[in-house]
Amino acid sequence: MKKGLTVLLVVGLLFTISLNIFAQDDIELTIAGGAVGEELQLTQKAAEIFEEKHPGVSVEVLSTPDLANDRLGLYLQFLEAESPNVDVYQVDVIWPGDLAQHFLDLYEYGAEEVADEHFQAIVENNTVDGKLVAMPWFTDAGLLYYRQDLLDKYDLELPETWEELERAAKTIQTGERAAGNQDFWGFVWQGNAYEGLTCDALEWIHSNGGGTIVNSDKEITIYNEKAVAAVEMAGNWVGHISPPGVTGMAEEDARKVWEAGNAAFMRNWPYAYSLGNQEGKVIAGKYDVAPLPAGDSGNGSATLGGWNLAASKYSDNPKWAAKLALFMAGEEVQKLRATEGSFNPTIKDLYEDEDVLKANPFFGKLYDVFTNAVARPSTQTAPQYNQTSELFFQAVHNVLTGEEDADSALAYLELDLQDLLDYPIAD
Amino acid sequence: MSRNNSSDLAKEEQRLAYKLLIPAFLILIIIAIYPLGQVFYSSFTDREFASSKETSFIGLQNYDKLLSLTIKKLPAEIDEETGQKIINPDTGKVEYENPIRVLPRKPYLYRPLQEFNLFGNRYVIGSADTDFIKSLYNTLVFTIVSVLLETILGLGIALVVNSEFKGRGMMRAVMLVPWAVITVVSARMWEWMFEPSRIGLFNMLFEKIGLTEGNTAFLSMSEYQLPSLIAVDVWKTTPFMALLILAGLQLIPNELYEAAEVDGANKVKQFFNITLPLLKPSLAVALIFRTLDALRVFDVFQVMLAQKRYSMASYNYFQLISGRNMGMASAIGVIIFILIFVFALLYIKVLGVETE
Amino acid sequence: MNKFRENPVQRTLFYIILSIIIVYLLFPFYWAVNSSLKSESQLSMTPATFIPKDPATNNVSIYWKNYKGVFANGSFVRGLFNSLIVATSTTVLALTAGSFAAFALGKLRFKGKKPSLYIILAMTMFPQVTVLSGLYAIINLLNLGALFSMILTYMLFTLPFTTWVLTSFFRELPIEIMQSAQVDGATPFQTFRMILLPLTAPALVTTGLLSFIAAWNEYLFALTFTSIDPSARTVPVAIQYFSGEFARQEPFGEIMAAAVVVTIPIVILVLIFQKRIVAGLTAGAVKG
């Protein structure tokens, strides 16, 4: 057994040495990004283009877990250790506020010239105390998926308000059930208690004119009539047009109900669009996407999602790190990613680009949705956004499961947020 | 043997013992001292994780916030015109003041944890960190119920597998399958079976036998959450108990049973008079490690309930990663540590494990 | 205990209990196998089916692509290899250091035995998340390779376990065995190696198997320590890195297929070692 031990030690030692040998090149950059198959390949492709343009620089793409929480946990370990191992981080749209202190101000590295080309809402979201801490990379926003064939069957118009949606959903649901599909529901969405519910609920509330939980002046706005009404409305959907189980559904659960042909409407992100049209899917070719319905504000709202690129302060080559981030988020790479991987660009002009539209015909429709997308209040509540969001979605979830009524849930929430954030309550 | 000689022997034995302990202690010193020390230390500070903020020493404040409880009497709501107590027309019960108006807001905001009646008055228990107190409760219930079930089932399985029958070699492998499934994946597997529509196993089955309509969100309804998780954990870790007990059974000499047989003791008697007492030491160790794991339960809670309901360890994770409150997270770690220690001592005392 | 087969009623009862146990232990795993053989649209069928069926025709239709996907995934295959190295080394190291310590703690007389036992146990009492950042700092300081970092840090939960379980087993062994060996002129260490170790084979195999599986399944440490070195990723991490064509899409069928594939080596391992689990103390040995 002692022999085994020695062998083990030697193996370990060799391993360590071999790691150190590789660590020499002129400039070596590492970008930490998504693990998803195509996403990773496209990032690698873009990295190669960068290497070609800048001889002597090599770029390594480090895949990180797809689960946002695992990825954040990992980043925090790197940042806590002030590790120079990663130069550019792919960050969720809700992180810039929280992590700003670890990132370079890209305005100091020439972002000024290009910032205007990107969607305003995302640039604002990524600006912390006047510093641009991350470049928008690709975007995401909530959409309404609807079954065109069923609307036709029941002679219905595409709903433009939540009330119309509720009526249409009910009509179709009653009809399909009578026709023998006992698993059919009108509307599925993300009602589980997690970040996804924050996104959905923000859409109901904002479209109803109920604000964004905390406004940009750092005032708590959540406890108002419009917000209460919006949450109440969603609470009534459960068991009525949405399955009771919706309170346990995330994106993938909703997509499964939808793809089994068991829902008339679905709220989801753009990713579900191409998936539903794949070969062998029951609903292929039978659906389309539209902006989410409007509430009392008269407009629909879509929550802003997506990912950005930030350059680490702890990089050994901050200049190059910033340069890489800017290149990756630039028009060339975004176009590549849009045409080859359906990633929604953050550069406005690309939504009029012929090649992009040819590859993704539905992009044109999304333009308005993306320009008007609402950001979650992550920047104004930093560094407490995660706790803010947790309190928010738990309050909403309690209403959905019927444990609390909307009015008292939001009243409590207001007090909780006040205690957490120490912000005043808006008039 | 002379006195001198035996004390020499004793010294030699002692020296050998210390030498044998060196590898274990060396390894543990390298990997454990710093992280453990750091946890203890930062539990007394307001340190933020991955932050350049200055850290200051705040004494026991983290513990104070986590564990603060208060009880307040809830006054009945009085009708301003009549001066009478308001009675809810639907339920016929007295309406009480909303707890949030009664509970203190300084130095922390107390939130209602539980309301109860005593001598005709209504009281509310408030806590400064309800999520933590609830996570403590969840973890304790989870631990006690699942460890108890696992012990009983594990004992049963071990006894069965210990008998002689055809294919018992295969059975020993079958027995370990649940424990062998990767924890993170097994949680996902069960989550899939608990899916809130009929694509999930349980909803499909329950609908088939007419129990429900097949739309139960097991993991979102508070009454089903803990039972579901306990079911997962019992399935997953019963093999751990069973295997350790099975190994313990091997230590019991067959002669004892043979002798008992001769004395005419039946199987049940043999079990209580021979098996159980002689199994105590191995059972105690198995219980200690099982309880220790149950009190630190993380994966199942994190994957299946995430932020809907916490265990202490998953709340700890939330505080550290999402909240970045390293000081607070460390304090939670220390509380778990103390709890485990208490349980371990309890087992050692109750089951009479020698430590000398 | 072992001779129950006197009458057919008892015998039948025994086999009924046995079957219930087998179904209980294996059914969830069967469900994973079942799910791993379904395509995405088969997975979203209502009601769920006990065997993979075609959504349109309702005929049995088995979908093998998940398994192809798993084996085509280079990081998964490499992950199997890494896991094997890490789990084996962890087990060997934990059993070696653990049985040394357990011999001292279970059979030798020395001062400070009780504190030693408690200190060793205390090492494993914190939740993994809590000690992670401290451990990460140590690992960075020592600058060990990812594989070696995992092996070393897994000692945190395997070493106290092996030490405690083995101690309790050594303690149970009759002292006469040691005494008679000493009379024969064996040193205590020889007694340990030649007599005690073989006698505690069931305990060694049991703790070994349990530690091996614990190391095989560990996720959080592995995720963090291999983050910068993807070639060292173990299976649980590799599975977490499985992804669909699009972000947010979860390749559930492939994850289940991987879970099934990963469980097989363990089953084989148990089959190899299972005889040892129960072949420990024989009557003769005890009498010495």
Task: Explain the overall architecture.
The complex is a heterotrimer of chains A (427), B (356) and C (288). With 427 residues, chain A is of the alpha/beta class. Chain A has helices spanning 2-22, 37-53, 68-80, 96-99, 112-115, 120-125, 148-153, 162-178, 195-207, 225-237, 251-259, 271-276, 318-328, 331-341, 354-359, 363-371, 378-381, 385-400, 406-421, and strands at 27-33, 57-63, 88-92, 127-128, 131-132, 135-141, 143-147, 185-188, 263-268, 287-290, 304-311. Chain A is built from 19 helices and eleven strands. Chain A has a five-stranded mixed β-sheet with strand order 2-1-3-11-6. In chain A, α2 (37-53) links the parallel β1 (27-33) and β2 (57-63). By secondary structure, chain B is mainly α. Chain B has 13 helices and three strands. In chain B, a hairpin with a 2-residue loop joins β2 (111-118) and β3 (121-127). The model of chain B has no long low-confidence stretch (mean pLDDT 88). Chain C is built from 14 helices and no strands.
Helix and strand arrangement:
The complex is a heterotrimer of chains A (427), B (356) and C (288).
Chain A (H helix, E strand, L loop, with lengths): L1 H21 L4 E7 L3 H17 L3 E7 L4 H13 L7 E5 L3 H4 L12 H4 L4 H6 L1 E2 L2 E2 L2 E7 L1 E5 H6 L8 H17 L6 E4 L6 H13 L17 H13 L13 H9 L3 E6 L2 H6 L10 E4 L13 E8 L6 H11 L2 H11 L12 H6 L3 H9 L6 H4 L3 H16 L5 H16 L6
Parallel strand pairs in A: 1-2, 1-3, 8-9
Antiparallel strand pairs in A: 3-11, 4-5, 6-11, 7-9, 7-10
Chain B lengths: L2 H40 L18 H7 L1 E6 L24 H4 L8 E8 L2 E7 L2 H33 L5 H13 L2 H11 L7 H8 L13 H28 L4 H10 L3 H29 L3 H7 L6 H11 L3 H25 L6
Antiparallel strand pairs in B: 1-3, 2-3
Helix pairs in contact in B: 1-13, 4-8, 4-10, 5-8, 6-11, 8-10, 8-11, 10-13, 12-13
Chain C lengths: L7 H29 L3 H4 L21 H8 L1 H34 L5 H10 L5 H15 L3 H27 L2 H9 L4 H12 L1 H17 L2 H6 L9 H6 L11 H27 L4 H5 L1
